Amino acid sequence: MNATEPHRRWWPRSVRARTALAAASAAAVILVSIGWWVHRDVYRESTQIAEGQAQAQLLALVDQLEEGVVPVRRSTVPYEVVATDRRAAVAYGGGMEEFDPGTRHVLPAPPKAELPAPPDDGAAWGYTTRPMRIPARHDSEPGDRFGKDGGTYLVMYDDVRADELSSDRVAALGVAADAQLRVYVVVLPHAAEDIAGAITEATDRRLLRAGLVSLVLIAAVAYFAVRIALRPVEAIRVLTASVTANDPRERVTVPAAGHEISALATTINTTLQRLDNAAAQQRRFVADAAHELRSPLTTLLASLEVALAYPERTDWPAAATTAARQTRRLQALTEDLLLLARLDTRSPMAGPETVDMTALACRLTEQYPLNERPLTLTCDSTAPAPAHGNPDECERLLRNLIDNAARHAAHRIQITVRNQDAWVVLTVHDDGPGVPAEDAERIFERFVRLDDARSRDQGGTGLGLAIARDLAHRHRGTLTLTPQTLGACFELRLPQAPTPAEK
Question: Which of 260, 326, 425, 457 pairs as cysteine with 300 (C-beta 3.0–4.6 A)?
């Protein structure tokens, strides 16, 4: 948790507890959804059972009428049999007596039968189902099947033609010979609820108990599973907490299984290795810097102490010249160290300016002092070569390359600049002894000098090539040593900038 983020009291801080709570919450949502679905499915099945009972009752009533038998009133399903041109119901039961249909039928009578009767096509028995309005009652009592205000119910009905029955059966039913009878069966909602009640109540109890047990088990399994999974993370935390700046050599044990924690351990080991390398490089840098600074300081202090000890025998102009030379060397070394420190803390250039590398190379070629040694410095390029970069830093980079070439060249230094694809390629080639292949990368390290025989006064600080490469990387470019049969050739690549005509 972020230190600035306010802690929520209701939310546990432990990852194990959070995972267990999240798993239990997700399981609760799933179990409630399943319970709701089961409840609805049981109710739907119960409704189908109630409709099946009503259908069976309808079929039984039709069979009784076709046999000339008047159905009895005792029935589990409300029903009513009405006939054409008859005010009272032929038969009723199952709660329809609450409407007193003995004097008047409740449900509408069917129309007169079509004469002659349509031929029997042998089709299977069928019935009609539709919602119908039951009239309101003013004398309802508690426990009646139908409410005081009536209501709309699902009703199944089928017709029986009296002219298709024998005269004895028609007489037994008490209807006219040309009448049409209609059998109504009412499907009450509470019938399905009564059927579903016993099932859903037991099902809900079992689901509730199973759900609570499942939630506890899921939360416990999630808690202990995460606890076991986080053991390597805890070991990594303990070990990384023991890493200090003085002893960054500790490494995390990578688990054998190739999962995310293995990747985390590998990443931490890589990070620790980079920190170790950076610390070692810093220690080497400080030691080398101290060593480089000690040499001119020792020379300067020795010359001044000798001059002060024997002032009458001291050649003061020579002593001053020596002191000035060592001071200049200290100044150059200090400036190089400060520049390296700035480069280490600065990010690559985001919006650089445009520098014509050809014009810069030609200007440095003309201005470079070659008084101490008879060297020839030439620039063979004339075509513009615009590159993205800071003018001062690009000049420092190129000047360092020329300084390095001037210290090792025998007679000649050649600079070439060309445009290649999306790069500006600049090379500085000298005809000196060259660099061994095994030292092609080592020469870019800080304070590295391959010529140990030369004096330090003439050999430079050992930071020029390191600064040049850092400047090249800062400009999103590269600086490498290309193989040559004679001398050393340094190749600089910088991103090419569009010319004014292309903008």
Answer: 326
